[in-house]
Specification:
The protein is α+β, with helices and mostly antiparallel strands. The chain folds into four domains: about 30 residues, no CATH class; about 140 residues, DNA methylase specificity domains (Adenine-n6-DNA-methyltransferase TaqI, Chain A, domain 2), CATH 3.90.220.20; about 100 residues, Helix Hairpins (Orthogonal Bundle); about 140 residues, DNA methylase specificity domains (Adenine-n6-DNA-methyltransferase TaqI, Chain A, domain 2, Alpha-Beta Complex), CATH 3.90.220.20. The protein is built from twelve helices and 21 strands. A five-stranded mixed beta sheet has the order 13-15-14-19-16. A four-stranded antiparallel beta sheet has the order 3-10-7-8. Strands 12-20-17-18 form a four-stranded antiparallel beta sheet, with helices on one face. The longest helix has about 40 residues. It is elongated and about 75 Å long. The two termini are about 20 Å apart.
């Protein structure tokens, strides 16, 4: 970021209007932009119900815009008469979706048809689709759109008139295109990072399946002939669950006491709740150490496990697993590898809970200690690679978000 842009941002934070900018109902804009342009002057409402049954039904998503309904596993049966009422959408159109707190104006890269409840928008003047595809996802625009719609949280649909009367940023077309090109480059990098993460996770899954099974035909160098013991998790571990102090007793909880780990926090370095010593002593909560293996028995992440990052107390939804016979990180990978099997077998349809008895019965192949450590090193290295890529992805996503706020509103200018 240049010193000029930094200075401009500081002026704006101080409530000043930088030179070359004008204060409008849409916020600050460069004075050489179309400063009083309403959305209805840029986008016109369009309804076309003349189509045949060859067009695919489309649906609005907040993350990917307008996509074929088949891609999001929505199978809504609709009669031929109902389909006739659907509206035709051309690639390059925008659609006002139903109730959305993440925007509500979605871009369609597809030809197809959408529910008559949606409003189809076509450009009324030449625009860069990519510019407005990003503009409609800025926090500033979303906030203004939602503030115009009284009762939106009660289910009121975003209407064309609500949208159309908004002042929107409308740079010269060449500047729109240049801004769009910059953001498109960010999108390409983000897409590549996501694909790389997907491939590295696939490799990790393959490594676990092969290295944790002595009969897979894949062994680490130097351990080709070592013997493995097949046993149950319960035979080589000790385990226990905790409990929850009475929530009605305020003296059991405090702002900075014993970290109270709940099932959704087993991978975290901090907790939302803390227990007093009195709360801990008057409950079934149990202490765990940093480095213990924590297994989620109940909750949305049932079947997941992590090595604890903190010392704290656990509740009844967590199983703490320790072992003096097996490397605890090796056990972590064994249970991660078995996660899909455990969930599909004991939590069919996502219903029910797991138990210590179920986990103890899980069978595993256990090699000698040195081989356990060697396998953990391979898998840990793969985890570190994935973690680095996820950090890079998050940085690029944050970079794009910052660029959107600067470029789409004209706080930072690009050469025309």
């Amino acid at each position: 970021m240049t010193e000029e842009i930094k200075a401009r941002i500081e002026q704006i934070k101080a409530g000043k209007v930088p030179e070359g900018y004008i204060k409008t109902r849409a916020g600050l804009m460069p004075s050489d932009w179309n400063i009083n342009k309403k959305a209805k002057e840029v986008f016109r409402r369009h309804t076309d119900k003349k189509h045949d049954d060859s067009l695919e039904i489309l649906a609005a998503t907040q993350e990917n815009g307008i996509v074929p309904r088949s891609q999001i596993n929505i199978d809504i049966k609709c009669s031929e008469e109902g389909i006739n009422g659907y509206k035709k959408v051309d690639a390059g159109d925008f659609v006002i979706s139903l109730r959305s707190f993440q925007g509500g104006i979605e871009y369609s890269p597809y030809d197809g048809i959408v529910s008559p409840a949606y409003t189809v928008l076509k450009p009324a003047i030449p625009i860069s689709n990519e510019y407005y595809k990003n503009y409609f996802k800025t926090e500033e625009f979303i906030s203004r759109l939602n503030s115009t719609i009284y009762g939106i949280r009660d289910g009121k649909q975003i209407g064309y008139d609500d949208f159309g009367d908004l002042i929107i940023h409308n740079p010269p077309l060449s500047e729109q295109q240049n801004i769009a090109d910059i953001l498109l480059q960010c999108d390409k990098v983000i897409a590549l990072k996501k694909e790389r993460i997907k491939e590295e996770k696939k490799l990790k899954k393959w490594l676990m399946q092969k290295l944790l099974n002595p009969n897979s035909g894949v062994r680490l160098p130097g351990y080709e002939k070592s013997e493995w013991e097949k046993t149950n998790i319960g035979c080589v571990t000790i385990s226990f669950s905790g409990g929850t102090p009475e929530s009605s007793k305020k003296e059991y909880y405090c702002e900075n006491g014993i970290p109270f780990i709940r099932s959704g926090e087993i991978s975290s370095t901090k907790t939302e709740l803390f227990l007093t010593q009195k709360g801990y002593q008057n409950s079934s909560a149990k202490m765990v150490n940093k480095g213990d293996l924590l297994y989620a028995l109940y909750g949305a992440n049932s079947g997941d496990c992590f090595i604890s990052q903190i010392h704290g107390a656990i509740n009844q939804a967590i199983l703490c697993i320790r072992s003096t016979k097996v490397n605890i990180v090796f056990l972590y990978y064994v249970l991660k590898n078995a996660q899909n099997h455990i969930v599909s077998t004991y939590l069919q349809g996502g219903q029910g809970n797991l138990s210590a008895a179920i986990i103890k019965k899980i069978s595993a192949f256990i090699p000698i200690q040195n081989e356990q450590i060697a396998i953990c090193k391979v898998l840990s290295t793969q985890d570190e690679k994935i973690h680095r890529l996820e950090q890079e992805l998050a940085q690029w996503q944050q970079k794009k978000k910052a660029l959107m706020q600067l470029l789409l509103t004209g706080i930072a200018r690009v050469p025309i």
